[in-house]
């Protein structure tokens, strides 16, 4: 049996940024435009690969909508398996879109205020893409560390006092989480004897009581590491400060990084602790549900208390993470469908908002952005050249409309994707899939928290908008570059397209959710993936 050559596309989202990042190290920092072109070319190629993977997983080209790439041609669980299904392909596409927007926004200013921005950016994409594709817990740890190591440099990029303080806190918290991650993986391997996710799900069925206790301890420790990265209460105290201090393009990528932890929890829990997992079935789902709801409360309160847009965006991301964790813990396929739709829209809108904040701040203090940039230039030997461009007619109108679009999506008001997502969540909660299911107190509490968090977002966003656009007195139109306007417009247009094409999007996400809730076919697809015959390795243990 010959391997389909298209399966090699699965490794490209990891291989492309790795090679590009290594190449960018060799290019002199003074060649800003060339480095940007190389970086952008890599991101566009990753976008094309992600689109191809979405097509291949949803068109029937790969049976059961899943492609498996066996690294080094060793069969699972002995070798490393990379798996591209509908969910992984969708997250790769979302990553590429956000990366393109963040990179375009950084072109004239933010990529030039420090060294190795483009290299770190590519290594960040390598870690994120690898985390979405890998099917092995230890390699998940490796990709997480690549992602975090790159993010440490990016958070501190173009350093100032606030950025250093927030960056040190961010590094300390994530190093502690990485230690817990490694301890959890070690305990899981000690109890189950495997780190392949599909093999772990198989072994959980027949695991003895003593090993099951140890495994649950390991999974709980592992979950803490993921939940730190997902900013679950009370583990998310670091996030608002980091969002407020990071440069706008880095903050936009942090919005996505917060969702990586939720993605892994969704993947692992629905695979390993499904109803087929015998004594381990349903482990941790209640904790995710109630912990997610507590996170929504914390995030909503933080949004109301925030006086700066950066911290408000950080608490908004916490509300988003809490909603996703609650959806996972609730354990209903139709709710996961709506939750995935909510994930896409909220991530795009929040990324657009953190990019917009820097432009809006120019209204309050004309020239403040260039002053801050000049003061930060001591971080490198050569300050970036003057980048003030010709003012775009209607700059204030663009800022106002973009802010209104972000606000509508983040708060869940009609007619954009935020409203569609919350309507879908409520519809799923009030229409249980099982005919014997009863709408209990958990349902009403979750619905009430979603409504109240939306109200808190409305109040905080309205307060910020009034202070900026209405009560600020006489304001002059700021100077905007096309490279600053285009990324925000792109993200909001994708949200509009997601609203207009809500039907096809929901159909795709329903198929994605169905796959996640049928772990048996997923397990067989990974463990039965054939090696290429006639090579040195024939798929047996070394």
Automatic annotation (TrEMBL):
Species of the source: Herminiimonas aquatilis
Entry membrane topology: Multi-pass membrane protein
InterPro entries: CPA3_Na-H_Antiporter_D, ND/Mrp_TM
UniProt feature coiled coil, ranges: none
Domain NADH:quinone oxidoreductase/Mrp antiporter transmembrane: 135-431
Residues in the signal sequence: none
The protein, known as: Monovalent cation/H+ antiporter subunit D
Keywords on record: Cell membrane, Membrane, Transmembrane, Transmembrane helix
Similarity-based family: Belongs to the CPA3 antiporters (TC 2.A.63) subunit D family.
Pfam families, per database record: Proton_antipo_M
Compartments it resides in: Cell membrane; Membrane
Regions that span the bilayer: 6-27, 36-56, 87-108, 115-134, 140-159, 171-192, 212-238, 250-272, 287-305, 312-333, 339-360, 396-424, 444-464
PANTHER family membership: NA(+)_H(+) ANTIPORTER SUBUNIT D1, NADH DEHYDROGENASE
């Amino acid at each position: 049996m010959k391997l389909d050559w298209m399966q090699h596309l699965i490794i490209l989202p990891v291989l492309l940024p790795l090679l590009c990042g290594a190449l960018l190290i060799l290019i002199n920092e003074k060649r800003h435009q060339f480095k940007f072109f190389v970086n952008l070319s890599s991101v566009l190629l990753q976008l094309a690969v992600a689109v191809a993977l979405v097509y291949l997983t949803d068109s029937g080209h790969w049976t059961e909508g899943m492609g498996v790439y066996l690294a080094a041609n060793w069969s699972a669980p002995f070798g490393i398996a990379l798996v591209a299904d509908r969910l992984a392909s969708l997250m790769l596409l979302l990553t590429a879109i956000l990366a393109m927007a963040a990179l375009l926004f950084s072109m004239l200013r933010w990529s030039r205020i420090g060294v190795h921005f483009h290299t770190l950016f590519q290594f960040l994409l390598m870690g994120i893409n690898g985390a979405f594709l890998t099917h092995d817990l230890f390699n998940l740890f490796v990709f997480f560390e690549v992602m975090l190591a790159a993010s440490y440099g990016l958070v501190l990029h173009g350093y100032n006092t606030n950025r250093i303080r927030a960056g040190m806190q961010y590094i300390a918290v994530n190093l502690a989480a990485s230690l817990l991650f490694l301890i959890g993986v070690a305990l899981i391997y000690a109890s189950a004897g495997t780190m392949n996710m599909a093999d772990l799900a198989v072994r959980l069925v027949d695991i003895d009581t003593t090993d099951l206790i140890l495994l649950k301890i390991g999974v709980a420790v592992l979950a803490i590491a993921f939940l730190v990265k997902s900013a679950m209460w009370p583990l998310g105290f670091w996030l608002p400060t980091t969002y407020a201090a990071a440069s706008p393009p880095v903050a936009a990528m942090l919005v996505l990084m917060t969702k990586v932890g939720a993605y892994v929890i969704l993947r692992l829990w629905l695979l390993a602790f499904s109803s087929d997992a015998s004594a381990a079935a349903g482990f941790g789902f209640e904790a995710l549900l109630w912990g997610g709801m507590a996170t929504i409360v914390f995030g909503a309160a933080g949004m109301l208390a925030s006086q700066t847009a950066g911290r408000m965006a950080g608490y908004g991301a916490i509300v988003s993470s809490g909603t996703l964790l609650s959806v996972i813990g609730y354990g209903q396929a139709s709710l996961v469908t709506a939750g995935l739709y909510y994930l896409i829209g909220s991530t795009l809108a929040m990324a657009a908002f953190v990019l917009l904040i820097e432009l809006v701040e120019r209204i309050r203090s004309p020239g403040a952005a260039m002053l801050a940039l000049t003061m930060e230039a001591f971080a490198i030997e050569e300050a970036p050249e003057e980048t003030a461009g010709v003012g775009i007619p209607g700059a204030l109108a663009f800022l106002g409309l973009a802010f209104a679009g972000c606000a509508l999506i983040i708060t869940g008001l009609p007619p954009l994707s935020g409203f569609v997502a919350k309507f879908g969540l409520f519809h799923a909660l009030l229409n249980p899939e099982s005919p014997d299911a009863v709408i209990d107190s958990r349902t009403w509490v979750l619905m009430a928290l979603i409504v109240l968090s939306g109200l808190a977002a409305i109040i905080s966003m309205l307060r910020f908008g009034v202070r900026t656009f209405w009560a600020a007195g006489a304001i002059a139109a700021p100077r905007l570059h096309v490279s600053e306007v285009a990324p925000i417009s792109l993200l909001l247009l994708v949200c509009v397209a997601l609203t207009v094409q809500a039907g096809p999007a929901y159909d795709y996400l329903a198929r994605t959710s169905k796959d996640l809730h049928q772990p048996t076919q997923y397990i067989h697809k990974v463990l039965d993936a054939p090696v290429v015959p006639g090579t040195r390795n024939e798929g047996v243990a070394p």
